[in-house]
Amino acid sequence: MRLHLPRGLCFGFLLTVICATGISKLTTLQAQDSAKLAPQVTEDDDRIRLTTPQLSAAVKKRGYVSGIESGSLIDSKTGFHDLGFGLDIVDWIMEPGSDAAYRDQLKGDLKYEINNLYHGKTAKRSIEGPQICTQAKQLTPKVIRGKNFTAIQQSHRYTIAAPGKQVGSLWEQTIVFPEGKRYFISSDRITAVNDSPAMFLRIDLPGHIKHNKGDSFSEVYLSYLGKIQPEEFLKDFAPDEKFLFARGVTKMPERFIRAYHIRDPKTGQQGPWLAGMTLQPDVVSEAWCHQRGYICMIEEFGGRPIKKGESFSAAFIVGFFDSIEEMEQVYDAYRGHTGLEVQETGWKLVK
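The structure assignment produced for this chain is given below.
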């Protein structure tokens, strides 16, 4: 039996079906678009990979660990990537002073020799080690996913120490990727098991610059000195020979920003700036920018008295920018912080 409906009712029924179908398709398309915009995280035994519409990055679990893996931070807008051995890479806990009197008793890689092109003339010594990036060998980073962000946390306890020092200080690193940004926010924190008159942590920040006679970048920017041309880095020189920041010696900048302007070594095409910003300038005790086969961008933060059980930290922004003015605007939006906290419910910078 066929059901005969009045013409108006039949049209209304058909319109309802069409509208419902259209809404269903629209909802499906919206869901697909949202899925494309959401961060994609994959993980295997060796690394965690993250991809967003703005950038991609990887954090290694094995081998050369800590921070962001070399060459993995890729700017979706331009296709360019970082030029060094990794970003926010972590080394030893150190303090001023020479280790010459007990150097033959030091374990592993704790020896620190000076009066060379690698370290310059300033006497320093390692309190605890080994160097995390090359010697920790394996870390267990954890992914935290929340609304509008993805975070990665990792940590390590130091296992060797100088004579008279304890082992076991805790390094913790938190990295947050806010959705919609071409940069990440990070923080490194040390909880000490030793006293020190001026303990500091050595890191690579933002990261080193591999190049062949200045072919991979067009300029370096240091907020405490200005712009530097590639020609300055054609020959090796010590960190204290030029371009050194030292707290108490160099004038403290309003913003602590170090960046390099990437270019394609084959075509000369200009890319974005890759910048590393320390959000509280006076936590930096020393920062290098010197040539030793590559441009070495070491940063040391802390350098103040610490008692056993106390902590010190610094917070950073690292990523891609189209101009120095854009870096400054982003810096000012986050400035003044030294730590970073994250939970599934959200993240926040802290002082």
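Interim note for the steering committee: Residues 7-37 form the longest helix (31 residues). The mean pLDDT is 92.
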